[in-house]
Design goal:
This protein has about 70 residues and is an all-alpha fold. Helices cover about 80% and strands about 0% of the residues. The longest helix is centred in the middle third of the chain and has 23 residues, at about 30-55.
Length: about 70
């Protein structure tokens, strides 16, 4: 059984750190790498939350929004 409090705490930490790293995208040279790493951390946090609450649709919707955003950029 998954410890829900620990998983939500991990998700909160991952999401927070990931969000801060996404803000560093504007930094020259390493900003893009930090931004991508942060975005991946946010995706992992959403996956953790989706698993804890038991609604897989939350993560699917996040993946769809990411694909649409990447498609809009390119």
């Amino acid at each position: 059984m998954i410890n829900e409090n620990a998983s939500l705490s991990e998700a909160k930490t991952l999401g927070g750190v990931g969000s801060i790293l996404v803000l560093f995208t504007a930094v020259p040279y390493v900003g893009v790498v930090l931004g991508i790493a942060g975005f991946v951390m946010v995706l992992i946090a959403v996956k953790y939350i989706s698993d804890v609450i038991g609604i897989e649709q939350v993560f699917r919707n996040m993946i769809i929004s990411v694909l649409l955003a990447v498609g809009a950029i390119f």
